[in-house]
Amino acid sequence: xxxxxxxxxxxxxxxxxxxxxxxxxxxxxxxxxxxxxxxxxxxxxxxxxxxxxxxxxxxxxxxxxxxxxxxxxxxxxxxxxxxxxxxxxxxxxxxxxxxxxxxxxxxxxxxxxxxxxxxxxxxxxxxxxxxxxxxxxxxxxxxxxxxxxxxxxxxxxxxxxxxxxxxxxxxxxxxxxxxxxxxxxxxxxxxxxxxxxxxxxxxxxxxxxxxxxxxxxxxxxxxxxxxxxxxxxxxxxxxxxxxxxxxxxxxxxxxxxxxxxxxxxxxxxxxxxxxxxxxxxxxxxxxxxxxxxxxxxxxxxxxxxxxxxxxxxxxxxxxxxxxxxxxxxxxxxxxxxxxxxxxxxxxxxxxxxxxxxxxxxxxxxxxxxxxxxxxxxxxxxxxxxxxxxxxxxxxxxxxxxxxxxxxxxxxxxxxxxxxxxxxxxxxxxxxxxxxxxxxxxxxxxxxxxxxxxxxxxxxxxxxxxxxxxxxxxxxxxxxxxxxxxxxxxxxxxxxxxxxxxxxxxxxxxxxxxxxxxxxxxxxxxxxxxxxxxxxxxxxxxxxxxxxxxxxxxxxxxxxxxxxxxxxxxxxxxxxxxxxxxxxxxxxxxxxxxxxxxxxxxxxxxxxxxxxxxxxxxxxxxxxxxxxxxxxxxxxxxxxxxxxxx
Length: 645
Prior knowledge:
Largest sheet: 6 strands, parallel
Structural class: alpha/beta
Oligomer: single chain
Radius of gyration: 27 Å
Helix content: 40-55%
Mean pLDDT: 88
């Protein structure tokens, strides 16, 4: 087997990890220090010097990008292609899906996108509502309407419930009530829908051989449930994790370990007690709390859950130089050495407004174009993307192309579609939407106004949604919207909508802000978005729109609607040949790197505080940069994160 000369000269820390003799090794690492490189160097040494069979080495990660990073690193280190192909590099979920077959389970449908399970979530909402009614808890079920607008939010909650095994870790006597729900940290409505959804996903039966479909994370959860069951459906001989001889197990992204993954790994290591194991992670990068990630497993919990291991550290920055490393050292309160000759600097910019930030980004765009440097290496990492309306509007007006990652553009957020539709109906505009966005706006309006229409004889009209979706612009704006307002059981919501439309009916810009305030968006959103963060996000979008109206010189409401539609159409164009900067959530940027990172909102009450999750997000955001980090604040009181500069 021909090995290429490795282009990598390991650091002293990486070399110690590569040659460590301990059977089990756990590595606490900083961001940007070559964690995956150290892990792969250790695996390749086992193959070259100890004769380990690549096909008998299991390399696990939390995400598919993490698995792909391992494959790229193995190739970069000079390993033959045939060896790389034989290594068992996969996510926990992929590994568990294969092993569940050993239990005789027929293949479940693999559904990767939220829209593929939307019908199941909506059916679970109705089933949970019916059950709450039957059990006398109808007042505790807080979701009004069908729930179309919160499907993705619910799926995120389900992901956390499964990753943290929240209900499986309760007492055997646990029964869902409003009081017992509070003890889990989740609301009664979410847990009721989750139980209905899982009953449907599992075919209504108690066994794991009836699984109808799986979404990301489900295979790991189902395996963890099977392994922790009081009465397992497998024996010692057909144990699903008995995979024949194994020569090593390694886990990258160990900071993303959750209870479901830990249950699987603990069982695997107990089946193979002499198996060499290495795990690498960074406790300051635990930002996947929505998936149940817990730093407990990388720190004190490792000894408790998995047994003893030699602890090692990986601290020497490879991605950036002292200008960034020293700031992170102060912020994270841990050693962060780096190469003095490496570039990298951190700056704090005080900009008076979002428009000043837009002009700054325009200059960055122009400078990179002149230098023939890709604009895609510039990322604006947002803590609160729901408040990005001003920034997006300004970039589009300034001709600075961008793409969003981890959130929808402002023109397509449900609350914005709803407001645009109401304003269009008030002023009689027929060209405020593209065909696709008008369809989405009608659905958003239906949800915010009521989400169900009663029939004269009782019950809900099952055809309402189809009628709304298929209604042409004129018919909906002139007739159907008024019918919705007249028939909805949510009279208070209808009154807010009518008040807002009446104020805006004169098509006068000075009436826009009073009309938006009359909507009382936070109150409307409570009934359809449920989660406090989503409700705050919807209200923040309207506040940003109010600021936009007060700043821009629109001639009329009709003109504003046309401008927003023009921006929407620009966003929908094929930009494959254009250079675009990245607007991303911090969570979405994890594992990526950019030459230039900008982090706005570093003021008190925005991106600030002592909350551990907030601190982790800031650490992850700063550590994405290779050359330049710009921390953006306005003239108000600064964030407590800024002393790191």
